[in-house]
């Protein structure tokens, strides 16, 4: 999981629009939450996978909390629905995740109600989001997908499998 879920603690405010919901966030709090140990020894490893279907995203802080819980419990995650958009894509950095080749993944950059952020703030917020992705996906996000503000840059599960994300077994 090298580098995944790690972000420096900084002090700045950003407006992030995730899944159509825009919020002003103190990114220092997000970064501090990310710095907490996410790979702590679980009480017991979960064997029943969490199946994600048709997830259009949601609040960034809620997703970070979910990610922390999934890592701590070692819950396998299967992304199988028609879509996984916005903060849902952050699940792709989990150590025990797999995807369906037919799922459509939608990525976008941080914005202020659909309006691009000032360059320095855009860069910091993009880096924070990218810190949740596997390396090849992170590189693509930072060079391409983050520049989509009012729409999504899409990849299929099959494309992500080609980038090294594990394919789910047939259900």
Summarize the structure.
The chain is an alpha/beta fold and 171 residues long. It has 5 helices and 11 strands.
Specify the overall morphology. Answer: globular
Q: How big a fraction of the residues is strand? A: 15-25%
- Helix/strand order: EEHEHEEEEEEHHEHE
Percent helix range: 25-40%
Radius of gyration: 15 Å
- End-to-end distance, in Å? 27 Å
Sequence stretches where pLDDT stays below 50 over 5 or more residues: 1-44
Chart the SSEs and their pairings.
Elements (H helix, E strand, L loop, with lengths): L12 E6 L2 E6 H9 L14 E3 L7 H14 L3 E3 L3 E3 L11 E3 L4 E4 L3 E2 L2 E2 L2 H12 L4 H9 L9 E4 H6 L3 E2 L4
Parallel strand pairs: 3-4, 4-6, 5-7, 6-11
Antiparallel strand pairs: 1-2, 7-10, 8-9
Overview of this structure, please?
- There is one protein chain.
- The radius of gyration is 15 Å and the shape is globular.
- The longest helix has 14 residues.
- The protein has a 4-stranded parallel sheet. A 3-stranded mixed sheet has the order 5-7-10. It has a two-stranded antiparallel sheet with strand order 1-2.
- It starts with 12 loop residues before the first strand and ends with a strand.
- The N terminus is likely disordered.
- By secondary structure, it is α/β, with parallel strands linked by helices.
- A hairpin with a 2-residue loop joins strand 8 and strand 9.
- Helices cover 29% and strands 22% of the residues.
- It contains 5 helices and 11 strands, in the order ββαβαββββββααβαβ.
